[in-house]
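User: structure tokens for Fe-S cluster assembly ATP-binding protein, please.
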Amino acid sequence: MALLEIKNLHAQIEDNQILRGLDLVVNPGEVHAIMGPNGSGKSTLSYVLAGKPDYEVTAGEALLDGQNLLEMDPDARAAAGLFLAFQYPIEIPGVATMTFLRTAINAQRKARGEAELSTPDFLRLVKEKAGDLGITQDMLRRGVNVGFSGGEKKRNEILQMTLLQPKLCILDETDSGLDIDALKVVSEGVNALRAPDRGMVVITHYQRLLNHIVPDVVHVMNKGRIVRSGGKELALELEASGYAGYSQDAA
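Assistant: Done. Predicted tokens:
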């Protein structure tokens, strides 16, 4: 069974139709990259799947492991195994990073009928995973993303993803604003999560991210639909020729 199956998805915001009959299938173990020009609907797709309330789905369905995501509240989608890494992670002053992480993990465990992690187990797990991502104890003591650089915010999101162990990871332009060193650290963290039972959707403008997170399938999105799919070489073609040739495909 497909891990993620999207059929004929239409969505709008404030009567502005953005997704116009999008179809996508992601099987367990696959990494899919979605590329396309600004305004093609890439980020809207991620928001609709995660349950951002401003977006209205007007037709179609989105199934995660056979469950209808569109009928679930955002927290239920997360507990079902969906994780969205934002393009611009926000700061949450007054909420300690460690408190945030522990609350998120235990809320998901509780929703799945699992026991909460003990304090020693939680601390041991965070210390191990944070070290792999170059996240210092000082960063963990701060408020969520408070005073973090762009690269630190992205690494903190990958830490959250690593701890939560989702079934489906959606990375919305996670390379945005990263220098080459930060890009490498973030990509290594993502690659460490590749697994036979986990799928990933990587949304990006640039082929450079796909040098580090090599996709199984690349999709071109334009005007709210996927207009072409291919192997990793398609990303190189797009880098060379741009998106101008796809405008008529989505007309």
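User: Anything notable?

Assistant: The domain at 4-92+167-246 is CATH 3.40.50.300 (Rossmann fold).
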